[in-house]
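FAQ: What does a ligand-bound record look like?

Like this one, built around zinc ion:
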Amino acid sequence: MTTLLIKNCFYIWPGCDDQPLCHHDILIQDNQIQRIETDIKEDVDRVIDASNHVVLPGLVNTHHHFYQTLTRNIPAVQNAKLFDWLVYLYEIWKHIDEEAVFYSSLLAMGELLKTGCTLSTDHHYLYPANINCDIMATQFKAADLLGIRFSPARGSMSLSKKDGGLPPDTVVQQEDVIYEDSRRVIEKFHDPSDFAMKKIILAPCSPFSVTENLMKQTAELARKHKVLLHTHLAETADENEFCVQMYGRRPLELMQDCDFLGNDVSFAHGIYFNDKELALLDKTATHIAHCPTSNMRLGSGICRVKEMLPTRINVGLAVDGSASNDSSDMLAEVRNALLLQRVKYGASAITLNDVLKMGTENGAKLLNFKKTGKIKKGYTADLALFNINKMEYAGALSDPAAALVFSGFNHGTDYTIVNGKIVVEKGRLTGFDEDKIRDKANALSRKIVEKV
Ligand SMILES: [Zn+2]
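The answer part, i.e. the structure of the complex:
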């Protein structure tokens, strides 16, 4: 058994059901939180002094596209909206290879860990004809090295331009190949247990890049294997128009006909729902992965989060792909979620507790990790420790957890702990050389971008 004691925490935000704690210790045994008390006296393997730190449950990221870290803020589409942005970038993305998948995964997960995220998904839907590695195995290799809890979605695209879809032929796959590989990755990687480090989700990309048949088949397969479902939905008004033209139905109606609704389903974005559709999402307890930064960056719109929160619609937070954010800064996402709702609904629309809950507990619920997202005995030892004893937080300590969101200019943790293991120490990744990630990612990015 290994033991780790987080000593004398300046401030613990344990989750919104419990009162914050000052000057408490957290005892971790192996991968679980064992005790949260004052002045714990135990012989332990390691002690971390947290007297300057705000301790949060590890943040949870519910939507991403890691490979896009190599194509951030490309000048040609810095000011484009979703469909134009996608059509341009597909031509760059088709050049990704195994090395690009590996280093982009390290880069995205590294940024997430360094900004307090301990559990993330990734929606990889790009399978160019010329790539012949096991993409998911490559991503898990990167996740294992860095020590993040990882629940990737096996994405897919099958509806290319020639069939009325948006992506070019070079990046889509045959539906029987997608089905077979989806089954394979579940059998190879999925661990249904509460403390799993690996879970699989199935995720057709969007209504404008897969067929109705593939949506239906994927939903059936996921239910058969008891894994979650995910897709992009209702991100833009263009998508609504596309679906009405192509399928004669709005996006959510299409999903309903595909049996792609329920508490095992999450939709990324979920901006363009009308009242009737919100009622259907409520009735079916469907989840939303809210991506405020991406929605602002692409000018997509504002998700009706405030109206969703009192219902059974569970809203988690997500940074989205790095070509539309363009960072994997999870604490910034919490801040932007708070600010963006206030633009639409006013200053009292949403509280700090609401957004922290969305970034922790709600995200864990969306990804079906039942013992993650709170600092509580018996929960996974997934923690983020932010040093609050800095100039940029001075004057903001009357509410230390809020200071992290309202104040400051650097979202990096001092320590990030996942499954009881220190994966960020003194602000640096412990599992891989950060400078190597930077240099390789820059070189790979140059290579891919120059091909256009
Ligand atoms: Zn996305």
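Follow-up question: can I read anything off the structure? Yes, for example: Residues 160 and 426 are 47 Å apart (CA to CA).
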